[in-house]
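During the reporting period the student researcher (J.K.) took over the structure-prediction task from the postdoctoral fellow and processed the backlog of single-chain submissions. One of the processed entries is reproduced below for the supervisory committee.
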Amino acid sequence: MDNKLKMEENSTYYVDLIIRYLSGEATPEEVATLSSWLKSSTENQKQFNNLQKTWTAIDQNKVDSEIDIDEEWTRISAIIEPAANTEKETKIIQLDTNRRERPSLFQRFSRIAAVFILLAISASVVYFLMKKPGESKTISLLAKTESVEKKLPDGSSITLNSGSISYPENLSGKSRTIKLQGEAYFNVVHDSTRPFIIEAGNLRIEDIGTSFYVNTNDADGNILVVLTSGSVAVYDKDKPKDRTILVPGEKAVFSKAKNTISKSQNEDVNYMAFKTKMMVFCDTPMSEIVETLNRVYHSDIRIMDSKVGGCRITSTFNDKSLDAVLNVLKATIDVNIVKSGSSIQISANAGK
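J.K. obtained the following structure tokens:
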């Protein structure tokens, strides 16, 4: 057996031993073994402290019946970060040989699961613990079922409707660079000495004192940029000098297949509905209305009959719930709306 495998098995053994101790199941002999292991190095003590803090945090916060990995990572990160900055003095951890805490079976499984989540992301943990003083870490945001708003260190703000963004924690450097995969609205504080640049695949969007919208998941497989105020420069990362400048009311469409950028007037009045909660439909086909609703409410509405998709509606909705909007649509065109699992199905009434 090679040394690497021995080290991995040894590490796993002591993790199991820590879990047995924290759950009150360790025998006096196992506690003695664990105590000797802790006294042998400060790194062993750090590992014990991190797992113990995770265990305690989960107990204090009363873990729900399903563990959300994203949520646990956020909580664990908050625990790990301070640990990386603690003094490097050796402290002897005293173990209780009579520890016989007996949490419920569910609590034990919940906490054990969270510990193994911590182990599964050990590479990230190592990065945070080993990063040099003053080195900037990367901040990541994810939006799945609802929009997420974030204020950046430079005063700019982002509303992420779906997908993810990432950026250096303090936005240091010659440029303020944000990576985007998904749909978001940016309100940028202009700084002529440090341009604000969005990286969206091969496309680059650079602000010139601006509020703008970006969608990397456009229905046609393209990247869409719509300018609200100010101006932006849009260009291919490999052709930085070949720039398309947008003014308010214009949009740019970047073809991923052709690596080309086309500019035109934006005619979608609802492109910002996920942020403003205002939707305006004027003789709009039901199929287009459903696309907007799915984007704004993160829903899965499906039209089951083609003739329903062709029905046209004129209406305005201001900060209404999805149920309220669906009730208006149902009354307007007389359709059946049925919830089936996580989706909502719209079909014509029988005989219509």
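The committee noted the following: The chain has ten helices and 17 strands.
J.K. will present the remaining backlog at the next meeting.
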